[in-house]
Amino acid sequence: MADKPTKGLADVVAASTALSDIDGKAGRLFYRGYDIHDLAGRATFEETAHLLQRGKLPTRQELADYGAELVRGRELGALVSANIAEIAEKQKPMEALRSLVSLAGADDPDKDSIAPEANLGKAARLTAQQPLLVARYHAARKGIDVPEPDASLSIAGNFLLQVTGNTPSPRAVEIFDTCLVLHADHTMNASTFAARVCAATLSDMHSAIVAAIGTLKGPLHGGANEQVMKTLESLSPTGVAEAVREKLAAGEKIMGFGHRVYKTEDPRATHLRRLSEELSADDPTYFRMSKEMEEVVFETKGLYPNVDFYAATVYHYLGIPTDLFTPVFSISRMSGWTAHVIEQHADNRLIRPDSEYIGERDQKWKPIDERQ
Question: Which residue in 21, 23, 37, 221 is the catalytic one?
């Protein structure tokens, strides 16, 4: 007799990968063998993207070459540029990104190829264009122009410049850069699995990324960070503990807590808590509320915060609009998604799981006039 299926594919190994690994019991995350605690705050996002997409931490020359490729690749094509304003008028942020990345695929010079070199080029262009797509979408819906990129700034710095309209402080750039590193990849999460399933059909990279973005859009995956901020904004600063206890007693889920894989604290949350506290120096209200919420949820449910919980207040303090929190997730995760597509294409087999049929059997066909 066949084994019963595992609901949600929990603990089912769906692919082999050299990109990232998790030790859920110890609360550790690795990118190509490097502990996230060694990378966060030390490796830049550009270095991390190179590590994931090209297999190694770059030398100074390799980083300079990759950085130049990112600068060349961030220019948006004619089709996507022509449609941003109309899309911004009609679609919410994640819906818009789904559409814009699809259009960017039509503009890409390697759109008809999944060869290794073509995939490397597309991965760099997607990584470079995603922050600009988010910034251009945000500007279009507000009816303002996006500041020109600053050649002295990184991906993190230029995104903060283009979304807020203000030149960010060096420390703000460092903090946001660390956030991008922390979110860059996370084994076989839902959006990455969606990308690999699409890529396994030998579909192109942009199609796989559209599948990933559509999956990230869901509130049980990428949308959680936005919900965390909305929850904080709905609470009285002096009534956090009571409100959280009431929600938990009523069976409501508090977003930003618990994880399918980690049995202890999410290692990314460790860094984000520290960064949130640092950024809250001038206005500690939301950080204090977050700490109180964390203490109550752990006391009541024994749940640790995950990556989404403190990411919310970090992004808030950096001046990023709340409904762009999930699009920011996609800016970072683009480095991992594209690396997974490259890996899938390099050693491909169609991903086609089995299923357990639980419906009726031996039904007898009847002409339409005889059916009840």
Answer: 221
List phi, psi (to 5°) of 321.
Answer: -60, 145
Residue (of 287, 217, 298) closest to 254 by Cα position: 298
Which residue among 177, 308, 316, 340 is the active-site one?
Answer: 308
Verify whether residue 345 is a known catalytic residue.
no
pLDDT > 90 fraction of the chain, expressed in percent and rounded: 90
Q: Is the pLDDT of residue 2 over 60?
A: no
Distance CA 331, CA 131 (A): 6
Residues in the chain: 372
Q: Residue 190: exposed, middle, or buried by beta-carbon count in 10 A (0-12, 13-18, 19+)?
A: middle
- Are 239 and 286 contacting, i.e. CB atoms less than 8 angstroms apart? no
Radius of gyration from C-alpha coordinates of the chain: 22
Active site residue 221: yes
> How far apart (Å, rounded) are the C-alpha atoms in residues 266 and 259?
8
Burial pattern 93-122, b for ≥16 Cβ within 10 A else e, equals: bbebbbbbbbbbbebbebeeebeeebbbbb
Write down the catalytic residue from 183, 206, 259, 316. Answer: 259
Q: Hey, what are 183's tokens?
A: 């979110």
Instruction: Give this prediction's pTM.
Output: 0.94
Buried b (16+ CB within 10 A) or exposed e, 331-363: bbbbbbbbbbbbbbbeeeeeeeeeeeeeeeeee
266 is catalytic: no
Collapsed DSSP state (helix, strand, coil) of residue 284: coil
- 222 contacts 326 by C-beta, under 8 angstroms: yes
DSSP 19: S
SS3 for 69-125 is HHHHHCCCCHHHHHHHHHHHHHCCHHHHHHHHHHHHHHHCCCCCCCCHHHHHHHHHH
* pLDDT confidence tier of residue 298, bands split at 50, 70 and 90: very high
Q: Report residue 191: phi and psi, to 5°.
A: -70, -35
